[in-house]
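F.,

This is the one I mentioned.
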């Protein structure tokens, strides 16, 4: 049974990511762990370290969080999103999101985290909030970020940019392969080059990738003399891509593309779900 973690702040944005996750895995046995982290109305150092219940605000904040989670569960039923293979568990916790995520990954063996992005009003780019970026950078399991107001689409066309610098293995790409097979999707692997031919190592890694997806719809695209972000923007528009997937190989391709200038925002024009898998 797949274990999926769904952080929520009860916003429309987080509801959108929850609905997406449920639709994506509607035919799979899944447990969805939905959690909200709350902050008491009055928060002081001595309050946090000694006896929070003495202040009364702790119970009120916890009760409000639990009530909102009950309302959320009711909404899932009302929108007919309770599919038979699914189990839902809810949690209200006074804890930081990233700390709690690490705890869940360890205790519940989480397979995937699905969360919303935070779109900047009036901006051309979809900007990821600092929490989303911290989770992507630190999580030891795949993270899927869903842009605000993105209406669910079956991921029939998937874009997988790669520098072909690391070896691929089946376990590393197991979630991606499940999505490809379950939704009869086409995987578009894309390499942006500097006009040089692939090295022998890159050719070997490409062959491994092709072997993993043997029997599935797989296409390899070589794009020359473009910035990676521009190539992604152009490709996803021309080919109606509805899922972007990347490996987070530390201090290499992913890190250079997205976090070179700032770790607080991913500033290219991403308007589709974005799955990041740790390497």
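My design for it:
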């Amino acid at each position: 049974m797949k274990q999926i973690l769904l952080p929520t702040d009860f916003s429309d944005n987080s509801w959108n990511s929850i609905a997406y996750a449920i639709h994506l895995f509607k035919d799979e046995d899944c447990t969805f762990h939905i959690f909200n982290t709350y902050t008491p109305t009055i928060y002081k150092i001595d309050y946090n370290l000694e006896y929070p219940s003495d202040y009364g605000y702790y119970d009120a904040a916890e009760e409000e969080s639990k009530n909102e989670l009950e309302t959320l569960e009711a909404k899932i039923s009302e929108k007919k999103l309770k599919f038979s293979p699914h189990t839902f568990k809810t949690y209200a916790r006074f804890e930081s999101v990233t700390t709690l995520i690490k705890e869940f990954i360890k205790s519940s063996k989480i397979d995937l985290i699905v969360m919303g992005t935070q779109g900047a009003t009036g901006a051309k780019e979809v900007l990821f909030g600092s929490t989303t970026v911290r989770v992507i950078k630190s999580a030891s399991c795949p993270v899927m970020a869903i842009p605000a107001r993105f209406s669910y689409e079956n991921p029939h066309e998937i874009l997988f940019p790669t520098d072909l610098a690391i070896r691929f293995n089946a376990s590393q790409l197991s979630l991606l392969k499940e999505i490809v097979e379950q939704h009869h999707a086409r995987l578009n692997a894309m390499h942006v080059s500097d006009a040089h031919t692939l090295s022998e190592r890159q050719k070997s890694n490409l062959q491994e990738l092709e072997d993993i997806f043997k029997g599935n719809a797989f296409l390899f695209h070589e794009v020359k003399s473009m910035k990676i972000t521009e190539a992604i923007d152009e490709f996803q528009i021309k080919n109606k891509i509805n899922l972007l997937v990347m490996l987070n190989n530390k201090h290499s391709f992913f890190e250079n593309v997205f976090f070179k200038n700032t770790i607080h925002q991913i500033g290219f024009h991403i308007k589709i779900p974005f799955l990041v898998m740790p390497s």
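Residues 245 and 275 are 5 Å apart (CA to CA).

Talk soon.
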